[in-house]
Design goal:
The chain is mainly α. It has 4 domains: 2-94, no CATH class; 108-168, Orthogonal Bundle (434 Repressor (Amino-terminal Domain)), CATH 1.10.260; 177-406, Alpha Horseshoe (Serine Threonine Protein Phosphatase 5, Tetratricopeptide repeat), CATH 1.25.40; 407-497. 59% of the residues lie in helices and 5% in strands. It is built from 25 helices and 6 strands. A 4-stranded antiparallel sheet has the order 1-2-5-4, with helices on one face. It has a two-stranded antiparallel sheet with strand order 3-6. β1 (2-6) and β2 (14-17) form a beta hairpin. α10 runs parallel beside α12 (229-247) and α16 (316-327) runs antiparallel to α17. The radius of gyration is 25 Å and the shape is globular. GO terms for molecular function: DNA binding; DNA-binding transcription factor activity. This is Transcriptional regulator with XRE-family HTH domain. Residues 112-167 form the HTH cro/C1-type domain. InterPro entries: Cro/C1-type_HTH, Lambda_DNA-bd_dom_sf, TransReg_Diox_bact_type.
Length: 497
């Protein structure tokens, strides 16, 4: 039942479970490590386990022959965990090989606790630095309260002096074939991004422009709007090389540089959503280089907006300054001015400044009214009245509206925007509804609707994972039924039931 990995490590001997478990219906979880050790007859020095399904012996002593004999004499782990008639039955069921997902804590709170302990910070001191009550932080660390707002995540990151990405645990382990494929392309995308700057020409033959243009349309009109990370990852490395080669041709230079801006934008959000550290910033820098080559305020302002949008969440003040600067740039398109105001509003909301957030929302609304179509097709920004409504839901959630986001969302008809933006709308609606027990079923339904629209986006969203993990921690096992357990498995926070 246990496979020994090595005789010693930094903390003592290590062993690994040879199979994976999930709680049976109606049974609270996770199983405590000391219960596992008791079932196996292991010494009390068994203290912890990690996401690789390892349990680690403490430094007191290694297992002895007597320990082995006690284990052999005790009920086996399988009997105790899986046989209801066994004395001390703990109510766990074994998963098939296809369902091997770790059942240890996967919530942000666990990583907060680990980093806090590593830094030697007390819970009280950390809570004070993050601007929250110690009791609330304790519940976060134990998984009893999800981290479902940017402000909370960023406050904890600032208190612990780490990036928010350190707390989210991204990139997440793939839970399906598409996610596995997307992760498999990360290295290729990074290689294409770091190998060539704007103006450098790869040693590759020029492809017919019609083919390159068709692939560019596929990326920008289909794959990115649908948040298909796997297909984007497969296409972008070769497309970047082809566009750099095309940019060396004076006849294709402008179109190729604009295409590079669009492709680098796709890279930025591909990397951001999957949690590839550093790559979004590099992609924005490449966008700026291409815009400078074009020397056009339309593209310079567009690159500046992307910089503001993708800046680290721990520096909302700087994000606000950059967004306001972009909103005032002469020569920029109305879409860029409007999106810059929306980014400024989100920065204000993350800092709890509701009045300033509303001011920028009002500006964005006025700009959206100036656009003839409800959703602008330019650069697939989706800017318009519908998208402003979706942003209002997100910003209301950050300002603590909770389940009241339903009132804000009631006026929004998201069908006209991309599937990615529609999914974001339902993610935020679901997150808000799940803050109140009476709206739990509606909140879960909203998350499932988001997953139906853009599964890869939903399964890589930290706030979805937190919301689902919170449901599992707070509710009885049967709460939410098959839908909850299925979603939990697919987002990687619990095995399916």
């Amino acid at each position: 039942m246990l496979d020994k990995l090595s005789d010693t490590n930094t903390y003592g001997p290590r062993v690994r479970f040879s199979c994976v478990y999930r709680p049976a219906r109606g049974v609270r979880w996770p199983l405590r490590v000391r219960d596992e050790g008791h079932c196996l007859g292991l010494p009390q020095s068994v203290k912890s386990y990690d996401s690789g399904l390892m349990i680690t012996m403490g430094t007191f002593r290694a297992p002895t022959v007597a320990d082995t004999r006690r284990r052999a004499a005790s009920l086996t782990l399988r009997e105790v965990l899986f046989r209801p008639s066994a004395k001390g039955y703990l109510g766990w069921e074994e998963l098939s090989d296809e369902g091997q997902v770790a059942v240890d804590e996967t919530h942000v709170g666990r990583r907060v606790r680990e980093i806090r302990s590593f830094r030697g910070m007390s819970l009280t001191a950390t809570a004070q630095l993050a601007g929250m009550a110690p009791s609330y932080l304790s519940m976060i660390e134990r998984g009893l309260r999800p981290v479902n707002q940017r402000a909370t995540l960023e406050a904890l990151a600032n208190a612990l002096r780490v990036s928010p990405a350190e707390l989210t645990g991204k990139p997440y382990a793939p839970t399906d074939a598409a996610s596995e494929e997307a992760h498999g392309h990360i290295f290729e995308v990074e290689d294409a991004m770091t190998a060539w700057r704007i103006g450098e020409v790869p040693d590759a033959p020029a492809r017919p422009w019609q083919q390159v243009s068709a692939e560019l349309d596929l990326l920008n009109l289909t794959l990115r709007p649908n948040a298909d990370y796997a297909a984007q990852g497969a296409l972008m490395p070769s497309l970047i090389r082809d566009l750099l080669v095309a940019a060396s041709d004076p006849k294709r230079r402008t179109a190729a540089l604009v295409g590079l801006i669009a492709t680098y934008k796709a890279v930025a959000y591909f990397a951001h959503d999957l949690g590839v550290a550093g790559l979004p910033v590099l992609a924005v820098e490449r966008m700026r280089e291409a815009a400078e080559e074009l020397d056009d305020p339309v593209w310079l302002s567009y690159a500046a907006y992307q910089r503001a949008q993708l800046i680290s969440g721990t520096n909302r003040s700087r994000q606000y300054d950059l967004a306001v600067q972009t909103a005032q740039v002469p020569g920029a398109r109305v879409e860029v001015h409007g999106l810059a105001h929306l980014t400024a509003a989100l920065a204000c909301a993350s800092r709890g400044d509701a009045d300033a957030a509303q001011t920028h929302l009002t500006e964005a609304t006025a700009l959206a009214d100036r656009i003839e179509p409800d959703v602008s097709p330019w650069m697939q920004t989706n800017f318009g009245r519908t998208n402003v409504g979706i942003w209002k839901v997100s910003i209301g959630l950050e300002l603590g509206a909770g389940a009241k986001v339903r009132e804000i969302a009631s006026t929004v008809r998201p069908g006209g925007v991309s599937k990615s933006r529609q999914a974001q709308f339902w993610i935020d609606v679901g997150r808000g509804l799940l803050t109140e027990r009476k709206h739990r079923d509606q909140g879960l339904a909203a998350l499932l609707e988001a997953e139906k629209l853009a599964p890869q986006k939903v399964r890589n969203n930290v706030f979805v994972r937190e919301s689902v993990a919170g449901l599992l921690a707070q509710a009885r096992r049967e709460a939410g039924g098959r839908d909850l357990r299925g979603l939990a498995y697919r987002v990687g926070v619990a095995p399916s039931g």
